[in-house]
Amino acid sequence: MKLAVFDLDGTLVDSREDLYLAVAHTLFELGLPPRSREEVVSYVGDGAVALVSRSIAPREHLLETAVALWREHYFRHLLDHTHLYPGIAAVLGSARIPLAVHTNKPGAMARKILDGLGVSSRFVAVVGGDEGVRKPDPSGLLGIAARVGASAEETVLIGDSLVDHATAVAAGVRFVPVSWGFVPVATLAAGGATGFVQDAAGLLPWVGATSEVR
Questions:
Q1: What is the pTM of this model?
Q2: Backbone angles phi, psi at 190, to 5 degrees
Q3: In angstroms, rounded to a whole number, what is the distance separating the alpha carbons of residues 58 and 167?
Q4: Sequence-separated (6 or more) residues with CB below 8 Å from residue 157
Q5: pLDDT for 8-40, tens place per residue?
Q6: Beta partners for residue 210, in sequence order
Q7: Choice among 7, 9, 14, 160 that is catalytic
Q8: Looking at residue 213, what is its pLDDT?
Q9: Is residue 137 flagged as an active site residue?
Q10: What is the DSSP letter of 10?
Q11: What is the rounded CA–CA span in Å between residue 45 and residue 25?
Q12: Residue 184 contacts by C-beta under 8 Å, 6 or more apart in sequence?
């Protein structure tokens, strides 16, 4: 492998609480019924607008106002509770190939999180969902690979969702699913994902930290 591309939420960082609290704030401000943490987490993966739209459904006429409320609150609070998953910092520090992040989260928010957690320097590119075509369209992933001169066969996408899996399949890229993310392993497996990584150490071969991929 010549390039490892990571999803962000549910793969590198546990951002569930901050995402949930931003949605809870938005619903409260609009006088709408609350959503559970489980509901909100299940809405994550297709970008900020989709998250808010699902949270306020079926009240689509409030979407513009709701997105503005969510963005303002989340941008101020996105590092209150968000943290790297155990062992991720060591994996990033051990990498011997270029690393990138491809997320459907807005790019400025993704970079603020990575900056705040002290790992932004590990990535040659961080591409958000508002900076190109969102996953599962493969063009963003292939564009990142082209930047570093890696072919699809030389690229791996590491993620935790069906969106990530579909993106890798569409791009002809190897997909490595993590078992600790927002989407249950059973759901990912039913969608065709295989070769689950059980902990951060299992990612070391995929970032060039050993001579062979296990």
A1: 0.94
A2: -65, -25
A3: 28
A4: 5, 6, 7, 102, 141, 164, 167, 168, 171, 173, 174, 175, 176
A5: 999 999 999 999 999 999 999 999 999 999 999
A6: none
A7: 7
A8: 43
A9: no
A10: T
A11: 20
A12: none
CA distance 189 to 105: 24
* φ and ψ of 138, to 5 deg: -80, -5
CB atoms under 10 Å from CB of 71, counted, come to: 18
Judged on CB neighbours under 10 Å (0-12, 13-18, 19+), 24 is middle
Burial of 41 (0-12, 13-18, 19+ CB in 10 A): buried
Six-digit token pair at 165? Answer: 């899996």
- Total length of the chain: 214
For residue 14, list its beta bridge partners.
83
Between CA 72 and CA 198 the distance in angstroms is 35
Contact yes or no for 9/114 (Cβ under 8 A): no
Residue 197 φ then ψ, to 5°: -95, 130
Q: Whole-angstrom Cα distance, residue 95 to residue 203?
A: 10
Kindly give, in sequence order, each residue whose CB lies less than 8 Å from that of residue 171, ignoring residues fewer than 6 positions away.
Answer: 138, 141, 142, 145, 152, 155, 157
Which position has the token pair 């994996």? 91
Please list the residues that pair with 3 across neighbouring strands: 155
- Tokens encoding 42: 């299940």
